[in-house]
Amino acid sequence: MKLFGDDLSVATARRIALGAQGFASGRPVGRLDVRRMRSAIGDVGVLQVDAVNVLTRAHYLPLFSRLGDYSRDRLDQLSWGPSRELFEYFWGHKAALLPVVYFPLLRHRMRAAEQQDWSAELSPVITAPWAVVVGMRRLQTERPGFVEQVLATIAERGPLAAGEISPDDVRRKRTDPDPDPTTGSMWNWQDAKIAVEYLFCAGLVSIAGRRNFERLYDLTERVLPAAVLASPEPDDPQQELVRIAARGIGIGTAADLCGSRGHYKLPTATARRIIAELVESGELVPVQVEGITKQSYRWHEAVDRPVDARALLSPFDPLIWNRDRTEQYFDFFYRISIYTPAAQRVHGYYVLPFLLGDALVARIDLKAERATSTLVVPTITAEPGAPDFTEPLREELRLMADWLGLENVRLP
Fold it and tell me: Residue 88: what are its φ and ψ, rounded to 5°?
């Protein structure tokens, strides 16, 4: 059913989106204590985790974009320390660091994964890599009881890396044929890895820490705070997840909120029901955004404020990870290039959009050359019609180099 609401310009929608992600107020002045970090994490909502380290790990960058020179060690403590405030799980289908208060909201997804109901109706709800789905089907037949052995090993010896878990010392060799060709070569996991990732998806084990960025698994009750584990599950956790998504994006279509490329993925019928309920309660306000034919919704607390930002944005930043929405709001066609063959790359390998004011004005290819303590900038590509951004970019690159502990900046 078509809803009608206020007409908004795309510039207004863009400012609302930037404000929701913490860019309207500018970077804080003064000491960056943990309270400011918590506030920025609240704005971002989730920190996507990715192994690429050509510049720095992806989860560090969104807070730098909003705070500047903050302590990565402090974020590590919040993520994996004894008094952790974040935990690793999946947001939609993205591996991410999430506030621990989200844990009760995701129990229904963990239960669905534990029950291994991979039906089409539930597939948007179950969060599991395809290697786990296919691998668990095989392990149930070929190695009954193996998953229980893996769990017992972790209970006895955890925290452990996946390579340290081998209850029966049976390992595939590199020369062995892939037992699950449908998973692709990058998912050709050892059986213990399949089992422990299944246990992680089911919430029975959690990520206790990282060793050279390799996951260390332990029993969830030994990882997360007892108060979090004792928190009751809401009657409708998916509705609360859509609320979180709506606060995070500020404004967007139903697909932006919970479609396959949206902020949080839900079955279509469930998404329609929840959006209708939030419209009825006044928490989502129907609006029409210039140039976007589908109905949009504004979070009721999201406002249009002037934006005077300066930030280099990670390819995994929640502001821009929905590439279609980024193009609609910023007139900026963006695709990550790290999986593109070198000869086919247009703007570089690890390309960060440069946000200046409320516009994306350039694409900056970046690399941390640690051997020479240099932040290398192989290419800079200005957007058509962009204003002069030379000095703001120089300042931002110098700030990033200082934050990463690099002495030099090498421009193209």
Answer: -95, 130
* pLDDT tens-digit readout, 315-345: 999 999 999 999 999 999 999 888 888 888 8
pLDDT one-digit tens code per residue, 180-196: 665 555 557 889 999 99
How far is it, in rounded angstroms, from Cα 73 to Cα 79? 10
Chain-centroid distance of CA 126 in Å reads 17
Q: Which of 284, 283, 304, 311 is nearest to 295 (CA)?
A: 284
pLDDT band at 121 (very low <50, low <70, confident <90, very high): very low
Average pLDDT score over residue span 220-240: 96
Q: Answer yes or no: is pLDDT of 177 > 70.
A: no
Q: Which helix (H) or strand (E) holds 206?
A: strand 205-211
Question: What is the C-alpha separation between 393 and 117, in angstroms, rounded?
Answer: 50
- The Cβ of residue 46 has, within 10 Å, a number of other Cβ atoms equal to 28
| Percent of residues, the chain, with pLDDT higher than 90 | 75
Whole-angstrom distance, CA of residue 376 vs CA of residue 370? 10
Residue 130 to residue 113: CA distance in whole angstroms = 12
Band (pLDDT 50/70/90 cuts) for residue 6 is confident
